[in-house]
Amino acid sequence: MIIAPERRSEPTSTDKLPGEEGCASREQLEQQMARIGRIGRQLFEVADCVVQFKDGCCEFPAATATQSKAEAFCASLPVPEGAVVVPDARRDAHLAAHPAVAGAPGIRFYATQPLRGQGQEVIGSVSLVDSAPRAFGQDARRLLLDLAALVERELQLQSMSVLQIALQKKNKSLRRRSLVDPLLKIWNRAAIMRILGIEADRCDKQGMPLALVVIDLDFFKKINDSHGHPAGDAVLVSVASRLRSCIGPQEALGRYGGEEFLVVLPGACHETALAVAERMRQAVAAQPEFIGATMLKLSISAGIASTVQFPSASTEELISRADVALYAAKDAGRNCVLQAMPRRA
Is 259 a catalytic residue? Predict the structure, then answer.
């Protein structure tokens, strides 16, 4: 299924993803860490379970301005290389003089388990804090190690999610580039034909008309023969830009052939299509192009077909009808727009 751009008349080679996936992932990680904190508090029956990370180790912040006293206490301590258990902080040589132990909030028990990244480097810790001393046996130590493993697993999933989002963005960019003409920066033939099919089906289901315009740049072969293909490419780029400026967000312009363009106008009757095509003709003819010192007066010929005139026509038939009108416009002297009309019985 084709990816519709925000403005169909102006496709680009890259897609801007809706929202900021990084922010969404960070919010999800914060929620998961909060859940693990709640599990830790209930599992060990402690006042607080704190999960924190070193700065720059992951998307989760190492500290916040609104951190709790337990979080501030844990953040003030170095992250150890191995598990640390302090049954009674008042009896510990390193913690006894800590303000949070000697004074409020009167922390007594402290246990921490380091968190490791995929390279086994220490990236943070999960810590237990309580206001009463307690024993912490081997079973409890194993449970804390298991809790740390849950955090590490969540970080791995987070990392995979970020990589997946980046891959999706890259794939979408590649897909978009495959739909856009690399020279003219408008839809290529495959894309504009797919858009035509999608819009034809939508208009049919909603009871709306559909019109299309087939456009050909007059005397393009002479430009290539006289001035070379690079000059011809520059002229095509300018013409495509002028055509694109004449249509709205829900209308589509694509390169149908070498110097041929196809315009899809959902919801438009033949009168509307005629007005759009005439606006395009005037936009191309209004200003000459210069190749060096040589001035070129450009013009287009266009043919129109709509489901108002041909209600049972397929998209291929509509193009064929518009093509016939295009060649009639060329036979009529070029630089004009004609619409296809049903044959009278």
Answer: yes
